Amino acid sequence: MVEKPPYISIVMFTAEVRLVAGREAFGLELARLLFYIGSVNSLKEAARLAGLPYTTAWNLLARAERALGTRLVAASRKRGASLTGEGRRILYAFLSEAGRRGIFLRIGRLVYAGSHDPALEEGLPGDVEAYFVGSLRGLLAVASGDADFGGLHLGNNADAVRTYAPHLALISGYRREVGIAYRRGVDLGDLRGLRLVNRQPGSGSRMAIDSMLKSRGLRPEEVAGYDYVAATHGEAAEAVAKGIGDYTVTVRYAAERHGLRFAKLFEEDFDFVARRERAEEAADIVRRVALPAGYTAKPDMGAVRPAASGQE
User: Whole domain around residue 206: which residue ranges?
Assistant: First the structure.
């Protein structure tokens, strides 16, 4: 007689995200602490919100800065504790990786999940939890309730939202210039000998890159660097500026910030989708985004309408 295996009533699988730096590894505890510092500008209060003793929080932060070799937090009498540029970059990278694995902390006033945009990143309040996971993945995160709002650039954004999530609200955004960013001395005449800095699958930028390569008769396996993926426009442009790659497709603002040449390909709509009960809060953030060179506000920027209305 064959014995039956013991009955297992509950099986649970949990995902984990860890930031590895040398011999050190940091879990989401560090991400929570950095988020709260950026939100409340106080290490003491951030530690309390994160459920950590102050000395534990201080030691965690000091250990992370030593391992990463950079300052994550700046302190002053007037401003208290605030995230440095590198601290904010580490936080966004941490959260974006978590979001790609379906992990959302939901500790912010609002949760953003969607495509990355440099102007939006600079305009997000410190209490907004941001996951830069690409247009389609972000849209699905908002549709499922994991996030409150997100940005997308999928061609006809209204059609995309009506197709995948007609129960959501659509928020009008802005237009931005997209093109090839490359270093001085690089000849774009033949891309076969050049190294690409790519973007993540499912993002609008990856779609633009694939379309550009196809128009030049190139298959992914023929493109050097196709598997080198940057999470944001800023990281992609920075990688080209440092010589890791020769070119990428990004927005004009990111290219110019890193001293790169820019060959415009097209302009695109960058719009937003939101859960209806959080749409007005999200729209207020959109209206406050400062648009630099390479951007144009839509006449109805920040206007909210039902995605299923059929209006453009």
Answer: 176-269
